[in-house]
Write a structure and sequence with these properties.
single chain; 175 residues; alpha+beta; three-stranded antiparallel β-sheet; 7 strands; flat
């Protein structure tokens, strides 16, 4: 059984008040200091919500992105890491920025896509061989991009370039 976090009850109340229905599942994205960021599954939609924790322990919605099942198409949720160190989730023309501390963007996008796909039911799940192969290829590309971003080669190359420039500047200053 998954541990219940102290903020889950407040999020459930917020969903009931705002969306008129109980949550099916809440998955934490990031919780630290005064920030609570979660992915929420409702009966026919998903939410990405960014809450702020008040001094009295109450939660206040900062921003959210609602993706209803009828407006979703497989693969339409994008999760990308920005140069500012944030994660941007985008669906159609709507975006939300979350912390990038604990999870990779592809994990969140895949979780939301999986929830929405399961809402559509087993009938619409990719069944033929080509669709499964394409899904595995997309996952492989995502992993390769994450590994490339985590690679130290770029940093080592940049350090070498900066060292050469410093040596050149030292040499010019010495003359």
């Amino acid at each position: 059984m998954q541990p219940t976090h102290t903020h889950n009850m407040a999020i459930e109340v917020w969903c009931e008040d705002t969306w008129g229905e109980p949550t099916v599942k809440i998955s934490d994205w990031a919780t630290h200091d005064d920030v609570v960021q979660v992915l929420i599954r409702l009966s026919a939609s998903v939410l990405i919500a960014d809450f702020r924790l008040g001094a009295d322990g109450s939660l206040h919605i900062h921003q959210h992105l609602h993706i209803p099942l009828e407006k979703w198409n497989p693969g339409s949720i994008q999760g990308l890491r920005t140069s500012e160190g944030k994660t941007r989730f985008q669906h159609r023309r709507q975006s939300i920025y979350l912390s990038s501390e604990l999870r990779v963007p592809e994990w969140g996008a895949a979780l939301l896509e999986d929830w929405l796909m399961s809402m559509r039911g087993a009938i619409n799940r990719p069944k033929d061989r080509i669709q499964r192969i394409n899904e595995v290829k997309r996952l492989k590309l995502s992993v390769e991009r994450n590994l490339e971003n985590a690679s130290m080669e770029k940093a080592v190359d940049e350090l070498g370039s900066l060292s050469e420039r410093l040596a050149s500047i030292d040499q010019r200053l010495a003359t």
